[in-house]
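Case study 2.
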Amino acid sequence: DALPIYESATLSDIRALIRKHEAFESDLAAHQDRVEQIAAIAQELNELDYYDSPSVNTRCQKICDQWDTLGSLTHTRREALEKTEKQLETIDQLHLEYAKRAAPFNNWMEGATEDLQDMFIVHTIEEIEGLIAAHEQFKSTLPDADREREAIQGIQNEAQKIADYNHIKLASGNPYTTITPQIINSKWEKVQQLVPKRDGALQNEQDKQQSNEHLRLQFAKQANVVGPWIQTKMEEIGRIAIEMNGTLEDQLDHLKQYEQRIIDYKPNIDKLDRKST
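Prediction:
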């Protein structure tokens, strides 16, 4: 576990502390000879049967004990600093990996959101079927996209797990990106909501184009009948104007018969006209 003094430290803070600790260790090592000299002098006094040797020995032992304690504390502090550094390095690498994967995934979601809301204008069944095929292809990529989202969130969770286990208080936010797990989840939910809306819009347009195609076929079928009939009648009327025989009354009766046949056929023309609008 991280010591309380390191709980809120950043990786750069810990590395700065390690450099200071290394300088302290160097300074400490420089005093090693002095401690050894004190111990040697005490030993020499003992060999000379110095009258106050017990007092000297006590004092020497105290110095040696304090030196050993100082050495032990120094070693413990170094281990704690190095352990915390390693933990923060792991967290830092996870933050970097998260940022590298979150950025393109975020861009993909923004592009998908725009595409799903894109207005479309089509005029044929082929065009709407092309859009539907593209949409189905997009939907087939969603399971992989969801797995990538979960993997990205897993990286963040792992970093937080390491921090919590070692009682490390992480600084707010990832130092490599502003894209938070909350932002990713929010945009993913929007994509999930837009997909069925796009399904509905494309299906409605397909139904409309299929209806239009049915009407076009009906119109073409009737136009193929009405068109030749009109052409024939126009030719017949033209011949009547040239080949008029008999009395005026006979000619008038003949024209009235043509007029009645045209009037009788008019519902077919009106029906065709309605289909064209």
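The chain has a mean pLDDT of 83.
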